[in-house]
Amino acid sequence: MQDLLARIESGEFSLGQQLPSERELANLLGVARNTLRAALQQLESDGFLTRQIGRGTFVAQIPNRSSGSFLSRRMRNASPADLMEVRLIIEPHVAALAASRGSNEDIDRIQIALRTSLSARGLAEFEHWDAELHLAIFHATKNALLVDYCDAINAIRNEPSWYRLKKRTVSTDTRTLYDQQHSAIVQAIADRDPETAQKLMTQHMSSIRDNMLGVLG
Q1: Collapsed DSSP state (helix, strand, coil) of residue 56
Q2: What is the percent of the chain with per-residue pLDDT over 90, rounded to a whole number?
Q3: Of the candidates 212, 214, 44, 66, the residue with the CA atom closest to the CA atom of residue 135
Q4: C-alpha separations of 208 from 115, 136, 165, 196 in Å
Q5: What is the model's pLDDT at position 167?
Q6: E strands along 53-93, which residues?
């Protein structure tokens, strides 16, 4: 299992990529098929892999390389309620800063991430491009400390426990809502409208918080 995780972390198998067949993978890793199946089941349970009937097994999460940072450790141990409270405080202001400070290149990057997230197939791919979209908005603030904060958030999103929580909270309806909210936020940023961007990001963060805490009860 660790060998396969290491290959995923190294980029040999990238996010959203389909793994080889069990036979090919067992030969590649030098393990028996039953050993491989047990490892695949565990990695799927941990959120690193996802199996799609009739299609195969795909990489769902990348092992967290930045888990050693102080900020990542503190945030990773925070409750979902505490984390979402912090996001609600910070990210609306980030959207406003992006609308005020973002260059044309920053806007292009944000729009590319949006378009790719809108066409994402499955939760793993959507989660990746959702994170990339938020990261692009953070980069547009021109504030390195804020970018570090976003990197810490994205590290948490790669944790298996958080991925399992997202699987419980992202339905077809919520995905549609998030797509609509993302599109509106990006339009406000592109229009250089900080006030609207801040308001829309507040609504988006509130939706995520309500969906997540509603599942947790």
Answers
A1: strand
A2: 40
A3: 66
A4: 20, 19, 12, 19
A5: 81
A6: 56-59
Q: Which residue has the higher pLDDT, 161 or 117?
A: 117
| pLDDT tier at 66, thresholds 50, 70, 90 | very low
pLDDT at site 37: 85
Q: If we measure between CA atoms, which residue out of 190, 207, 210, 193 comes closest to residue 113?
A: 190
DSSP string across 115-182: HHHHT--HHHHHHHHHHHHHHHHHHTTT-HHHHHHHHHHHHHHTSHHHHHHHHHH--HHHHHHHHHHH
Distances (CA, A) of 68 to 74, 76, 87: 10, 11, 21
Radius of gyration of the chain measured on its C-alpha atoms: 18
Distance CA(210)–CA(202), nearest Å, equals 12
Residue with tokens 């378009």: 115
Residue pLDDT, tens place only, 115-152: 999 999 888 888 889 989 999 999 999 998 898 888 88
Q: Please give the helix or strand (H or E) that residue 51 lies within, else none.
A: strand 49-52
b vs e for 117-156, b when ≥16 Cβ sit within 10 Å of the residue's Cβ? Answer: bbebeebbbbbbbbbbbbbbbbbbbeeeebbebbbbbbbb
End-to-end CA distance of the chain: 34
Beta bridge partners of 58: 18, 50
